[in-house]
Amino acid sequence: MEFIENKTYDEIAVGDTATLVRTLRPEDIQMFAVLSGDFNPTHVDADYARSSQFREVVAHGMWGGALISNVLGTQFPGPGTIYCNQTLQFPRQVRVGDTITVAVTCQRKFDHNHHLIFDCQCENQDGERVIHGTAEVEAPTEKIRRPKIILPELRLTETKKARYEHLLEITRGLTPIVMAVAHPCDAESLKGALLARDRGLIEPILVGPEEKIRSLAEQLGLELTGCRILNVPHSHAAAESAVSLAREGQVEALMKGSLHTDELLSEVVDKATGLRTARRISHVFLMDVPTYPRPLMITDAAVNVSPSLEDKVDIVQNAIDLALTLRIAEPKVALLAAVETVNPKMQATLDAAALCKMADRGQIKGGILDGPLAFDNAISVAAARTKGIRSVVAGQADILLVPDIESGNMLAKQLEYLADALSAGIVLGARVPIVLTSRADSAESRTASTAIAVVIAHAKRRKV
User: Fold this and answer.
1) In principle, which of 82, 161, 271, 436 could form an S-S bond with 138, CB 3.0–4.6 Å?
2) First-to-final CA distance of the chain
3) CB 355 within 8 A of CB 316
C-alpha cells in the first residue's frame, strides 16, 4: 500500500527543497481545458495556434501553477497544508513534449503563525525558466500519514457530436443524392430528413400525407424549402410509393420514417414490385464505440430473425462490401458464438466453421473471416491471448456477425446506451440502400445513417 506523508513545520528548515518532474502531453492540455473551462484557442485549436505568435499549441499558464500546488499539497509540506498566497511569472511558454522540473525551496519561517515562504521555480529540459514566483502557506503542525487514495481513472474521449461530425466526413466532395423518405410524420424522422438536406447529403422526396407533414413542419418551426412532397393517404401507401420511386430509378436511396419496419420491408422484398436482388437483404449497424479503436459493424441485428448458413453467406458478403466501400481494406470478420470452439450442439459454431471454409474456397470474397469467436475474443487482443487464440481477426474485428437478431439487437443497443456508441444503420442487398433506424433514434443518428447511403449510392454510380 502506498502512503502520503507530510513534513510538519518543525521538520522543515530554511533551504529545504522538494522537486517534481512532469512531461506535458496533448491530453494534459485538453484535460486542463475541460476541468477549468478555459478553451482559449491558443491552447486547444491547432489551426489557430499555427497563426499565433507561438506557432503551435501551448499549455495554459496555470497548468504549471498546478504542478507547484501538487508539490505543496502532497510532498512539501504535504497533507494539512493551507495555501495562503501565490505569485507567479511566466517568462516562457510550455509546449507539448517539454519536461518541466518544479523546485520548491523554503525561504523563510514564521513561528508565530507557522507560515512558510517558498521560492517556486519551473524549468524545461533545456534549463530555461518557464515559471517562477513565491508561495506562502500555513504548514501543518501535526504529523499525518495516510494511505494514498486511489482516484478514478480519467480518460478523454471525443463527444458524440464530434464523432458524428467525423462520420459525416465520409461524404466530403460527394454531391447530394435524391432520397425518398417514407412517411416522415413524427418529429425525429422529419428533422432527420431535413437535417440531411441541410448538410448537403440529400434532396428529399417526402412521401406521406402532405397536410400532416406541413402541419408538423410548421409546429416544429422547420422549413420545407427544397423538398418535394408526394401526397399519399397513409403509411402503407407511403411505403409502396417510396419503393416504386426507387424501382423506377427516380431516387437512389430510401429512408424509413414513422412507419413500422415490417411495413416498409414487406414492400421492399415483394417479388413482383419490390427491390430484391440476387442477394438476401440484411442490415448493418455501423458503430463508433469510444473504447474501441476502429469503426465496428454489427450484422444482422434488425432484419433476419434466425438466419440459416445460406443466409449468413449473403449477410457477411453485404457487410464486407460495405466495409470496402467505406475504404476499410480487407475487413476482418469475427463470427460470434458463445464459445470459441466448434461444438456440434451449438449451431452458431458450426455455421462459423463452415463460413470460414467457404471464405477459404472463395465463396465469400474481400474479407478475412475467423470463428467461432466469443465476443471478448473478437474485440480484445488480451482476452484472445489469455485463451491462446492465434488469429489475425481476434481483438481486431471490423465486422461482427451475430448468430441471430436477438443477440445482435441486444449487443448494438448495449453499446449505444451503455457505452455511448454513435450508431448508424443501413439495409443492404436491395437495389438501393435503405436508411432503417429505430423510432427512438435521434435526427442526428438518422443523418449519420444517411451519410452511409450517400457513399453507397455514389459507389453504385461509378460501377454503372
Assistant:
1) 82
2) 68
3) yes
> What letter would DSSP give residue 151?
P
Q: What is the pLDDT of residues 250-308, one digit of tens each?
A: 999 999 999 999 999 999 999 889 999 999 999 999 999 988 989 999 999 999 999 99
What is the tens place of the pLDDT at every residue in 405-461?
999 999 999 999 999 899 999 999 999 999 987 767 777 888 889 999 999 999 998
* Pairing mode of beta strands 296-299, 282-288: antiparallel
- Residue 122 pairs in a beta bridge with 102, 131
What residue ranges in 68-186 does DSSP mark as E strands?
82-89, 99-110, 115-123, 129-138, 145-147, 177-182
Our measurement of the distance from residue 258's CA atom to the centroid of its chain's CA atoms, rounded to an integer in Å, reads 27
DSSP state of 9: G
Q: How far apart are CA 132 and CA 120, in angstroms?
A: 5
Within 13 Å of residue 451, how many CA atoms lie on the same side as its CB?
Answer: 22
C-alpha cell at 106: 523554503
Q: pTM higher than 0.85 for the full model? A: no
- Residue 103 buriedness (CB in 10 A; 0-12 / 13-18 / 19+): middle
Q: Is residue 282 within 8 Å of residue 303, measured between CB atoms?
A: yes
DSSP letters for 288-348? E-TTSSS-EEEESSSS-SS--HHHHHHHHHHHHHHHHHTT-SS-EEEEE-SSSS--TT-HH
Q: What domains are there in the chain, each with its CATH number?
A: 3-147 (3.10.129.10), 159-276+430-464 (3.40.50.10950), 279-429 (3.40.718.10)
C-alpha cell at 57: 499549441
Q: Give the list of residues 6+ apart from residue 359 with CB closer than 8 angstroms, or none.
A: 365, 367, 368, 369
Between the alpha carbon of residue 346 and those of residues 342, 352, 372, 403, the distances in Å are 8, 10, 10, 10
Q: What angle do CA 241, 247, 251 make, to 5 degrees?
A: 75
